[in-house]
Input
Amino acid sequence: MTSGRRSVGRGRRPRGLLAAAALGATALIAHPAAAHTAQTTRTVPAAKGTTYYVDSRSGDDGAPGTSAARAWRSLDRVGRTTFRAGDRILLKAGGSWKGRLWPKGSGARNRPIVIGSCRCP
Output
């Protein structure tokens, strides 16, 4: 019997939010306090990819998603996009989504695909 913890093999790192998404997470909430903590304690290398915004309240899945003013609304829209190395997916802090966060694509060694939150207007 195990205690419910999953082990990570040597040389492998847990994928955090992506791992939770792969396990079928059914609800996601971007909390403003968590966004502030993540921004101050985590350093991510500068990326030259595209930044995509997701806003559960005023977003529109028909929008390009490349600015806070033209953000996507749903996690389903994120899942229909193939992201490239250096891209960022920013969920608006305070938003709430139902469904699965399952982005497609692949990062590179010094250009990961970053999932985070923002305090967008």
Strands lie at 27-29, 51-54, 82-83, 88-92, 96-98, 104-105, 114-118. The two ends are 48 Å apart (CA to CA). The CA atoms of residues 11 and 109 lie 14 Å apart. Confidence is low (pLDDT under 50) at residues 1-28, 31-43.
